[in-house]
Write a structure and sequence with these properties.
Strand content of chain B: under 5%
CATH topology of the largest domain in chain A: Rossmann fold
CATH architecture of the largest domain in chain B: Orthogonal Bundle
Number of helices of chain B: 18
Strand order of the largest sheet of chain A: 6-7-8-3-9-10
Largest sheet of chain B: 3 strands, antiparallel
Number of strands of chain B: 3
Strand order of the largest sheet of chain B: 2-1-3
Distance between the termini of chain A: 34 Å
Helix content of chain A: 25-40%
Number of domains of chain B: 2
CATH class of the largest domain in chain B: Mainly Alpha
Number of helices of chain A: 15
CATH topology of the largest domain in chain B: MetI-like fold
CATH superfamily of the largest domain in chain B: MetI-like
Structural class of chain A: alpha/beta
Oligomer: heterodimer
CATH superfamily of the largest domain in chain A: P-loop containing nucleotide triphosphate hydrolases
Number of domains of chain A: 2
CATH class of the largest domain in chain A: Alpha Beta
Radius of gyration of chain B: 26 Å
Shape of chain A: globular
Strand content of chain A: 25-35%
Distance between the termini of chain B: 43 Å
Shape of chain B: flat
Number of strands of chain A: 17
Radius of gyration of chain A: 25 Å
CATH architecture of the largest domain in chain A: 3-Layer(aba) Sandwich
Chain lengths: 359, 400
Amino acid sequence: MIKMDNLTKRYGSTVAVSGLTMDVHDGQLCVLIGPSGCGKTTTLRMINRLVEPTNGEILINGEDNHSSRPEVLRRSIGYAIQSVGLFPHMTVEQNIGTVPSILGWSKPRIVDRSRELLDLVGLDADAYAMKYPHELSGGEAQRIGVARALAADPPILLMDEPFGAVDPLTREMLQRQFMEIQRRLKKTIVLVTHDLDEAIRMADKVAVMKSGTLVQYDTPEELLSRPADSFVRDFVGADRALKRLSRIPVTTLMQPAKAVHRGVPLNESDFEGLPRYVWVVDSEERLLGWADTSGGRDTASWQVEETQAGRVSVLENASLREALSHMLGQGVRNVPVVTAEGKLVGEVTLKDIEEATAE
Amino acid sequence: MPGQGDSSSRLSQCNCVALFGASLGLLSLALPWLSIRSSRLAAGDPVWLWSAVGPLVAGMFLAVWLLALRAGFDADRRRSAATLGAAGALLAPATLIAAGIGSTQLLESAEAVARSSLSAGVWIGLLAAYVLVHTAAQELSARPRLRGAIIWTPIVLIVVAGLAGAYSDTSLAREFAGNEDRFVQELGRHISLSLGSVAIGTCIAVPLGIAAARSKRAERPIFVIASTIETIPSLALFGFMIAPLSALSYAYPALREIGIRGVGTAPALIALVLYSLLPIVHNTYVGLKEVSPAAMDAGRGMGMSRTQVARRVEFPLAAPLIAEGVRTASVQSVGGTTVAALIGAGGLGHFIFQGLGQAAPDLILTGALPVIALALVVDIIMRWAIARLSPKGLRTEAVT
């Protein structure tokens, strides 16, 4: 656990961080967010002592971070920054092996570890190990920056806009991939960003800062539904209800969907209970489309409106925001939820979403 | 207007550098090739190529230069470059050999003290051949073997012809033969003085460059002093050195014992060391300043100590630029050492000043040509070494 207690940093007469107190629990991803100049990066850099606080202290697992030399402290804390800062004269493998080599690991162990980490961040070790940074795209460089931060398997990771310098599409891909890694590794992470969507998407807890002070420290859900003051309300924006939806998986509101197997005749009682429109699936429960039931019991004669996977349905790991977007886009009031293989698992209705978001 | 379009596209396709070189080559044939003098110091009579080696050989020269001119208009860039390269590679040694053989023939009937000097035609011809080889080498960068052949053939031919004695009757060769022992001695002195001063200069300039990059307070004075030194004419700097060093050596006779006097090696060495400072200080400063701050922040953030950041990140990244500074200083120093002969430090300048004193142009060339060659050789070797030793990830940048 990282415990920051009454942390203050002054540069001459300007106060960068003032009386900041917060805890980051083990295995959590804490996002520091706020407008530029709010002191978020200064706070991050005080944890690994790239900046020394004027006042206050930081305890890491109960131990003052001043109890060992700063270099020794930093070697146990992963560090990734926006501009990545890969060493241009070293290969990818040597870059990733930076901390292990300072720690005196053996050559073969460093090589093995580099390859393992390249696999982890989804890059082919054979193709990338011997490349130089100038041969990498922005997204690849940032992934290697993350791999380098993880090299000596530090329990804590500090990240300063680690997905900043790439296009939005790549950024989202990197975020998803990193969340996947974090689910497996359960590091204690402090991440600085100015991108609220990134914070909402990734954080276990969000710390909103304003001119050096901590304004609110809460889960993303709490932050969006109960902003502490007008600053946070403005900061999270008028679309905070929508942002909240992006935190909620469709499965939380999903209900069983009425579906009919194509070509299988219905008996009278089943037919009576059907609504006007039903989903149609094949013998393996894969969603085919929807049909109008007014045509009678003979399902074989129904006109099935084909649906294209992904256009009318949403995947079961999607968020309510995506489900809502589908409904608005298609002009429908409910949307089927399918597995990656296309099997129908349920549906979400607009009414349920409305009820869930009402404050 | 198809005709007009054709002619303009043809004009844009022709190789202007090659056309310039070929025209220069044709011009060289119209200039005197040799200058025959009744004695070493007498005034000379001009001799043209056709009278030196006969109209047949002169006609062959004319034919090859015309061929080169035509190749300059060739739209097929590769065929054009190959022709130009071959023409240049042959014309350079042919020009020198024709001058050598012409000298031998013309002096056969003359008195023993008569001299035959190379004239404008030879020099312009060599320059023109160099222009052809240079443009061909650039065009053929994608074919390294052909390019190598075009560059090395003339050099090898010129050296082989020289060893075979083809030029031994030119005045230049006679001046050289008359001074051979002295030449070897002065060449050695020139090399040790110029490169030795850069070695010492590097040891002083690199720490100064580091200090300038690290400390805002040190930056200005270091650059003001180094730049001021660079603006002092070399002759004046050598002169400045005489008075204080003489005074010192009179005050402390022990200094005289180890060779520190107002004239000689000591003032020359000090002046050359001072001259070498600016390029190295400057490049060290720029090299360190250009190291990406992100890389250094990442290094420190991952737990490198200050020395580890310097050793593993800063210096490897700055090294190619620092080495470039040493290269600049070395080339500059090879030239600067020439003047050192004036204050008794020796070196190839000795022949230049002696030749100036005696109004013997070929003696001047005996000193001047090797200085040029030495500067080129130092430049080539150091460029090659820098390209080889630069970290691989930086090589793309280091070459440009």
